[in-house]
Design a protein that fits this description.
Strand order of the largest sheet: 3-2-10-5-6-7-9-4
Number of strands: 18
Shape: elongated
Number of helices: 14
CATH superfamily of the largest domain: Zn peptidases
Largest sheet: 8 strands, mixed
Structural class: alpha/beta
CATH architecture of the largest domain: 3-Layer(aba) Sandwich
Strand content: 25-35%
Distance between the termini: 36 Å
CATH topology of the largest domain: Aminopeptidase
């Protein structure tokens, strides 16, 4: 089975990094103790009904973390230098009902009037002015600047979705018919407003109802964020309907349709300041989850750390449907348990690695890579001592790119991080399993 081959090549790769190539026969001997039967045994627990999809900070995920720690203990793998298998991650959980938005003395209705994705977990904001910056664009090439002569620091900023376009469909900023980044990427505008030190961002969404309908189930389940200074200082981003945008602009003596026509006619940025009270209150609930860490100490190079990871969490339960996450990433978590057991066995029999190995299952990956972010912010071992991190994700998936074969795997980044890692991997494949193809690819940029 391909799962066995992926785990065997991973073990061989790890063993090759930590010892000399002349000992490949030793690596193969212990690598062969990695089996589909053992991985399936772990996976049948991690993807069982009782764990309910292992959603971060939910009971099923707590059970999954306990299972991993129990397996480490059973293998004889000790906890890290903290004395615990768990690295607790402090989180805040944001529910829609936690936030209140009041404009001009009227409390708005969540869903029909506004929704939010990003907001500080604890917030009490009172403002007396809204600065409308039009489309919120600053473009150095064309000279278009919606922030020119406007001080938005500490104020609520109102931004219109999209970009200015004339009757012929030509964008006023770029002079082209093709949509620019200002049309396609709202976060560019958000980043610009944040850099201008806006206290809050109200973004008039052009396709509000359809977007909210798409987002509502995910938002209703609650949004998790790290409970740290960065989250506390983040700028609240609130999407409002066109009706609410119109209501705000009417207080400034215009409306969206009139303003857009005037801007196209004058072909220049036009904003305004609106004296209007805004109150934003947000109170998220404190929760937590755990990364689970097991440590196999090396010998002559024990201060150097190789980290093997997989994410333990998945999507959890929605109404009565369980999203089991057997592939994503129960398969990776089950496999690194088997790999860890093989390494501990090798060490006990006098064939342990020269470098130390940290085996870790992350939590919160599906919520925005929260567990891995927390570990890099608060590493158990200094990051400068980390030689490499080998992450295993979804080893049970058959891809459409190589639909006529299962004798392949994906490697992401092995030829980007170092030439040594790539060549070590190629050698490990040749010795251990001879996969027909190892597809090396780059990680997609995150918009």
């Amino acid at each position: 089975m391909i799962k066995n081959k992926v785990c065997l090549i991973t073990f061989q790769l790890l063993f090759s990094i930590t010892v000399l190539f002349s000992q490949d026969t030793v690596a193969l001997r212990y690598g062969n103790s990695i089996s589909a039967e053992i991985i399936k045994k772990h996976l049948s627990v991690l993807a069982s009904d009782s764990l309910e999809g292992r959603e971060t900070a939910m009971p099923g995920m707590i059970k999954a973390a306990a299972y991993v720690s129990q397996q480490f203990a059973q293998f004889g793998i000790p906890p890290c230098n903290t004395g615990s298998y768990f690295q607790q991650i402090p989180l805040m959980k944001q529910f829609p009902e936690n936030m209140k938005l009041e404009i001009a003395g009227k409390v708005l209705n969540y869903g029909s009037d506004y929704f939010t994705i990003d907001a500080p977990p604890s917030l009490q904001l009172n403002a007396n002015e809204i600065v409308f910056v039009g489309y919120g664009i600053t473009d150095s090439l064309s000279g278009w600047d919606d922030y020119k002569d406007k001080d938005v620091s500490g104020k609520v900023v109102l931004i219109l979705d999209g970009e200015p376009v004339n009757k012929k469909g030509i964008a006023l900023v770029s002079g082209k018919k093709e949509a620019s980044k200002w049309q396609n990427d709202r976060m560019t505008k958000v980043e610009l407003a944040t850099n201008q030190k806006a206290a809050a961002i109200l973004l008039i969404h052009q396709d509000y109802e359809k977007t909210f309908e798409k987002m509502n189930k995910r938002l209703a389940a609650g949004r998790l964020m790290l409970d740290n200074d960065e989250a506390a200082k983040s700028t609240p981003i609130i999407y409002v309907s066109k009706e609410i945008g119109n209501r705000i602009l009417l207080q400034g003596g215009t409306d969206l349709a009139s303003w857009e026509k005037k801007q196209v006619r004058k072909r220049k940025s036009m904003g305004l300041s609106i004296a209007q009270k805004v109150e934003v209150v947000n109170n998220a609930r404190k929760v937590s989850c755990n990364n689970v860490l097991g440590f196999i100490e090396g010998s002559s190079l024990k201060e150097e750390i190789i980290v093997i990871t997989a994410h333990l969490d998945h999507l959890g339960k929605r109404e009565d449907k369980i999203y089991y996450g057997a592939d994503d990433d129960g398969s990776g978590s089950a496999s690194i348990l088997n790999i860890a057991e093989a390494f501990e066995k090798a060490k006990n029999e006098g064939h342990g690695p020269k470098r130390s190995i940290l085996v870790m299952t992350f939590s919160g990956e599906e919520k925005g890579l929260l567990g891995s972010e927390y570990y890099t912010n608060f590493p158990v071992f200094p990051l400068k001592n980390t030689v490499a991190n080998l992450n295993i994700d979804m080893i049970g998936r058959v891809d459409t790119i190589a639909r006529n074969s299962v004798n392949y795997t994906y490697l992401i980044g092995s030829d980007k991080l170092s030439t040594q890692l790539h060549s070590i991997n190629e050698n490990a494949n040749k010795i251990a399993v001879t996969l027909n193809s190892i597809i090396v690819t780059m990680i997609r940029p995150i918009n």
